Amino acid sequence: MQNKPAAMGFIFITLLIDVTGLGIIIPVMPQLIEQLIHGNLSEASKVSGWLTFAYAITQFCCAPIIGNLSDQYGRRPVLLLSLLGFGIDYILLAFAPTLGWLLVGRIIAGFTGASFTTASAYIADVSTPEKRAQNFGMIGAAFGIGFILGPTLGSVLSHIASGANFKAWAANVPVLGWVDNITVRFPFLVAALLCLVNALYGYFILPESLAASNRRKFQWVRANPIGSLKHLRKHPAIMGLIASLILIHISGHAVQSNWSFYTMYKFHWSPAQVGYSLSFVGLVIGLVQGGLIRWVLPKLGV
């Protein structure tokens, strides 16, 4: 494959923008839901839980389908469509007049949210055995950096959009002028812009990684998420690792999905304070995955 450095750089940027976009909207999502349901923070938290569930169940059902499509048509179109899907999701969140729009946006994001899986497959396609571990390390690095940048950027954008001068300027800009409550929704527009610009950049830069000779036709048997879980039973050695990962992700997402609501309710934090606290979490993740793990593993082993 030609232009491997540019391709790997794009994959890193794609993952970085995905996590940054998520981090941008986390601090302001509670206010957006409150605005749409005309309710309090407690009611907004319940709605957020259902929106997160809609995203997760859609991704669970569709990720094997997207993965099989990438096996047939290649990684490049799937990655680009994933970016477009996230961009559309953020646009819907920015302009949503009702809660139903948020639900549709989250379902679209769940359907196209296979960028991490497809990016992993892309890395496996282009990596030599000696470079594979290093290249896969980009995923953790992108997550850590994105979770540092995203919440901070979301806090800054929300603060900027709350200013009287910005509101006066935005009212005269065609697209921004159509947005109700620009203070809350401006970060969603920036997240959408990041995804769409990255998709455009990838259209011209990203080469295909999966050779035609290595592709296989789409089969519903392999696209069944339940079938994928049953397939794991053939490998009992990794079942313990899978169970550990499930518990880790449950605990991680439980904190992530409730952090904004809890701190706003318990400590009356502003979106900016929520964003800065999450950026600190991202910094710790980056330090652990980028530094501590490399020091601990040789001493203690896997």
Describe this structure in a few short sentences.
Helices cover 81% and strands 0% of the residues. It is built from 13 helices and no strands.
What does this structure look like?
The structure is a single chain. The chain is mostly helical. It has a single domain (4-300), classed as MFS general substrate transporter like domains (Growth Hormone, Chain: A, Up-down Bundle), CATH 1.20.1250.20. Helices cover 81% and strands 0% of the residues. Helix 1 (4-25) packs parallel to helix 7 and helix 3 (41-73) packs antiparallel against helix 12 (239-266). The two termini are 33 Å apart.
What's the SSE blueprint?
Layout (H helix, E strand, L loop, with lengths): L3 H22 L3 H9 L3 H33 L1 H21 L3 H14 L2 H12 L2 H33 L2 H7 L3 H4 L4 H24 L19 H8 L6 H28 L4 H30 L2
CATH level 1 class label? Mainly Alpha
Low-confidence stretches: none
The CATH H-level homologous superfamily: MFS general substrate transporter like domains
Q: Which overall shape is indicated by the principal axes computed on the Cα atoms?
A: globular
CATH architecture designation: Up-down Bundle
Helix content, binned percent: over 70%
**Structural class estimated from helices and strands:** mainly alpha
